[in-house]
Amino acid sequence: TPVLRAKDLVKTHHGEGAPARAVRGVDLSVRRGEFVAVTGPSGAGKSTLLHLLGGLQRQDSGSIWLDGMCTDRFSEARWATERRRRIGIVFQFFNLVSNLSVADNVELPALLAGVSPKQARAEREQLLDELGLQGKERSMPGELSGGEQQRVALARALVNHPPLLLADEPAGSLDSKGTREVTRLLTRFHQRGQTILLVTHDARLASAADRVISFFDGRIADDAELDRVPPRG
Ligand code: ADP
Ligand code: ADP
């Protein structure tokens, strides 16, 4: 079973002004171990798609399966539980809890998932080491650079070993050094088997993926597996 599957997803935003038809019928399947980038211009609907796939917003119609499990009838509470177990999310603006230390930010999702404090601490230590953040445990997010905050956010997203990592413009507020760093880290986690769905308008970041989906006007315009061996005929 795919880690994630979506069928006929549709979402229209009703804000001020004309309704925005952000996602207009999307079919998508992400297999275990894939690194998929969804790329396209600003306003194409990429972020909305990611929010639907992570259960952060609800689709108007269509279906989403997580590890083969249909999520359509999930309550908000059920989505929150399944998300905590199965999906790590990183955002453009990190979304760290500003009044919690780095260590507490990373441990929180583990504690919320029922992991023992001791185990949460061990997971946190390992991830922060791996991400080059040793010594920053007691810092507050606001004391860190953007690149460091995004690494903390990555640690938080991965602390429960989720089968799926969703990344929404993870380099969108970083400089070129931070962008290279995020690219390198996503590539490294992918090489270790992490399934990743990345949404970005940044072509360089997208090229780190092994499958690039071009998104335009709420629809998939192209879906290309890089290095794909052509089928034999
Ligand atoms: P992208 O991530 O590709 O830039 P978005 O999904 O953010 O695209 O936006 C797609 C369209 O939906 C845009 O026209 C945007 O203005 C609109 N939109 C996104 N979020 C909302 C919202 N919460 N309320 C109203 N309109 C929205
Ligand atoms: P919820 O109760 O909706 O699960 P939390 O209080 O657990 O939310 O999440 C706190 C912050 O972490 C929020 O900004 C939320 O967007 C973000 N978040 C929620 N789930 C995840 C996740 N699986 N990985 C990373 N960040 C998350």
TrEMBL record:
The domain of life is: Bacteria
The organism is Streptomyces fructofermentans
The alphabetical list of record keywords is: ATP-binding, Nucleotide-binding, Transport
InterPro entries linked: AAA+_ATPase, ABC_transporter-like_ATP-bd, ABC_transporter-like_CS, ABC_transpr_LolD-like, MacB-like_ATP-bd, P-loop_NTPase
Q: Where is the ABC transporter domain?
A: 4-233
Which Gene3D superfamilies does UniProt cross-reference here? P-loop containing nucleotide triphosphate hydrolases
> GO molecular function: any one?
transmembrane transporter activity
| Pfam families cross-referenced by the UniProt entry | ABC_tran
Q: What is this protein's record name?
A: ABC transporter ATP-binding protein
